[in-house]
Design brief:
Strand order of the largest sheet of chain A: 9-13-12-14-15-17-16
Low-confidence stretches of chain A: none
Number of helices of chain A: 20
Largest sheet of chain A: 7 strands, mixed
Distance between the termini of chain A: 57 Å
Helix content of chain A: 25-40%
Radius of gyration of chain A: 23 Å
Largest interface: A-B, 100 and 100 residues
Shape of chain A: globular
Oligomer: homodimer
Mean pLDDT of chain A: 96
Chain lengths: 513, 513
């Protein structure tokens, strides 16, 4: 048994059964091992950022790390941005990177690069295997690391001789490191704060945003009057009928400061203190009031559900039904607007849909209009590195075995980063409906430019405008094997959406906004 | 004057007049400064690897560094692979990366990443500006570094407050650091080796492969009987009528070992000892004979032309005409073959064409059939990170102001990495003819897989096959604004090529091979 075969068997034994891949020469022995060892589902992405983004979506919907297979330093670099997003989302990924043979590396061949340096800049755990006999052992350590602290990026670098040499040994799975238990003193301190009569916000992130966490948070809110809010972006939020109509911290710094101004104290439930995506001249980094007092109920690597349960127990907060969401909205009419599109999506989405939201500027106001949709999960771009939506949608569909409709609300500028994901959707016949919001510009940057206090001149407009030539998303999707059509109105969009929901495979709606 | 304005003026004063950009929020002040300070040509790429690849092509054809404009750590990561290729090609690039404001960084906002760590893994020079008053000074240091040692990647990281704060100061250009002068002892040692009667190879790289270097190398060869060969890949080789019909070291390790076996001694002219792209079980890393003796006439960072001139002088080698290339070849006929396509390209290419070669496996045999083409430059993928060809072609066309026809011989798998470059070709109306070699597979990997000693099973085929669905490059190009057509025969390819050469803008020929 060679090292590659030992690694495939080790991964399977440890419960890693999906491999998102874009292999090169140095990974050929691993690919060969996949054919001799059944059980690993392999999914090809045509660029590495598609591969890593799929693994992110996979973890978010399954809670289980997949492995990736990338080629040397440059392949890792190509997939780095969506590893960054996965790191921010707390997604567990066993990130396998093939590399030069140990004895070839000193010769500084053309593809030789600082693979470890690149990996360290984005991974919670990095190891380079040194010989075939240890690849199995390194593999279980990588799986353990990927599963730790609610989910982490663990990168295992595999010099090609560690894969092709004989002497591979299958390693037994290591016990998972569970997320940290609640701190009783923190729970008591939070309970005191909630009873203090001061204005307190419970800021929810991570597992607190899934249905069981919401139910516990609601009991706390009903018992104490504390307000609830979600982080601006979250890996996964349970939404729609039977879930809490949570507000998010706004993206815009001024709006966030205003939304957070009422609160004397902020309780963090797996959240971090809210800060802007960027600093701006004369504006604060931290969006809470300067005199706001913070309490940490649970850190991101702790168990949010256990922490909320402890708080419920400490408070003696009784069970209480969630608020009614009201009737489902009516679809929008006429020319597309953010509100109209949000209502259309909410009206039409099937039960247990998965919304992958990389709508960037267009979608900032989608939340209030989708609270009464059928129960669904909403996945955000967390790390701010655009090019996440299409791969994430693909991985989410694969992780749910095509049993749930995925709706990818996708800005055009961001979509151009990883459009190759459409090909994988077509190859795997995934039920992904992409609503491509074509505004033919980097709209968010036009706003940011105006924040600079300037009117865009010709050079700036050249950098912010995606027209000249207009990008034709129907042709691009068709070229990658995905059926597509254009919509100019919300009625046309609704018709196409409804049609796509009845099909098995992917569909792209180019909505001119 | 703010920091951004001081930087734009500083760059212009230092001769950096082209900016390849994919900006984000943290670069908006730099973009605003471009509008208030005329003189910088700005070219937008829709993904950062397009941006850095254009800058590589720009340097190769102009010998002058352009600057890039990238967004934070993930933007740098997206453009990292083509920076790696540029590093291997010895291309000078002033790589500007905007980042979080100095006082915002400690808050670990979502887009915060280890930008310096990423940069160090690919740059010869890295600096993070700390305040507006020093951005100009840092800028000239970056330009100096980019121009040193024949060309390097110099990364300047710009926290956004260093751009928007007032107090910017324009800095005077620093004197360029010229490439190292020849070492007289090395020249004498090489001259002795050439007179020794042993079988000697002069291995040429870098500037030795341009026309003046070739003329000098040919004088050495005629005076001493030394054999000449080029590195497998080179940043730029002058080829065609009136240039040397140089052989390259083969890619395949067995063939390379065979080609290099005759030589007792190898003289390196800006080349490194030839090694395989990858190590293989039971095969050597170094492709020369184990007992071969190496001489270094000039290191990659030295002046190859001066070194060759010194050698000519030391040998007293007289001027001598280059060998005749013979008549131009006839175009190929019928179904595409590598040889037939090479002959077709050679027969049709206009004078001073630029061939950007990312043909990967298909194009390994193109060289012998193109020696008698019109004079042209041939640009290779140097670092082995695929996704270089289309951006490089775009940058090469921009650097030559659209005055030279660019022919991009482009493999399909690699093209999928950076197809966004087509949009920039359309926007800038660049004379780029892309011959897209569509074999619907990662053909090179099929070969490498068979080297593993295995027959690809279904899993392996799933990783190596780009069919299911077939990618339609005519639609993809059309979606990005580039006119395109499919060819099934070499005659049809020749017709489309000739038509495209008469036009101003880009054209893509999808050649089914």
């Amino acid at each position: 048994m060679n090292g590659a075969q030992s690694l495939v068997r080790t991964l399977l034994a440890a419960g890693v059964d999906t491999c998102y891949a874009n292999p090169g020469t140095s990974e050929m022995h691993f690919v060969a091992a996949l054919d001799t060892t059944p059980g690993m589902r392999c999914v090809l992405g045509l660029q590495e950022n598609v591969v890593t983004g799929m693994a992110d979506g996979h973890f978010r919907m399954s809670g289980k790390p997949a492995c990736t297979l990338l080629h040397c330093g440059p392949g890792l670099a190509n997939g780095w941005a969506n590893l960054h997003n996965a790191r921010r989302a707390g997604s567990g990924i066993v990130n396998l990177v093939g590399d030069q043979a140990t004895w070839h590396r000193p010769h500084d061949a053309p593809l030789t690069a600082d693979t470890e340096g690149l990996a360290r800049a984005v991974s919670a755990w990095v190891r380079t295997s040194t010989r075939a006999a240890e690849v199995g052992r390194d593999g279980v350590a990588a799986v353990q690391a990927a599963r730790s602290a609610n989910g982490q990026v663990a990168t295992l670098i595999l010099p090609s001789d560690t894969c092709w040499d004989e002497g591979g040994q299958v390693a037994d799975p290591l016990p998972p490191v569970p997320p940290g238990a609640p701190d009783p003193h923190a729970v008591q301190a939070v309970a005191r704060a909630l009873r203090s009569g001061r204005r307190v916000l419970l800021l929810l992130a991570g597992a607190a945003l899934l249905a069981p966490g919401q139910a516990l948070a609601w009991r706390v809110a009903q018992a104490t009057g504390v307000q609830l809010m979600a982080d601006y972006a979250a890996a996964r939020v349970a939404r729609g009928q039977g879930r809490l109509p949570l507000r998010r911290v706004p993206y815009n710094t001024d709006q966030a400061v205003q939304a957070l101004a009422p609160y004397d104290e902020v309780v963090l439930v797996n959240a971090k203190p809210p800060v802007g995506f960027f600093g701006y001249p004369g504006k604060p980094s931290r969006q809470t009031r300067p005199d706001a007092v913070f309490h940490v109920l649970s850190r991101p690597e702790q168990d949010a559900l256990a922490a909320l349960q402890s708080l419920v127990d400490e408070l003696g907060a009784p069970e209480t039904p969630l608020p009614e969401a009201g009737p489902a909205p009516e679809p929008g009419h006429g020319a597309p607007t953010p509100e109209g599109l949000a209502r259309t999506v909410a009206a039409l989405m099937p039960e247990q849909a998965i919304v992958c939201d990389e709508s960037v500027s267009y979608g900032r106001g989608f939340y209030p209009h989708t609270v009464a949709a059928a129960p669904h999960d909403w996945l955000h771009l967390l790390g701010g590195a655009i090019g996440s939506g299409m791969p994430m949608a693909t991985g989410a569909a694969l992780a749910t075995a095509g049993q749930r409709r995925v709706i990818n609300l996708q800005a055009d500028g961001s979509a151009m980063y990883t459009l190759q994901a459409l090909w994988t959707q077509a190859r795997e016949r995934l039920p992904v409906t992409t609503v491509l919001l074509n505004n033919r510009s980097y709209k968010i940057l036009l706003g940011e430019y105006q924040n600079v206090g300037a009117t865009p001149g010709p050079t700036a407009m050249g950098m912010l405008d995606l027209g000249r030539p207009d990008i034709d998303w129907v042709r691009l999707a068709g070229g990658l094997g995905v059926e597509a059509a254009r919509a100019q109105t919300l009625e046309a969009c609704a018709d196409l959406m409804a049609t796509s929901f009845r099909r098995d495979g992917p569909f792209l709606i180019e909505l001119m906004v």
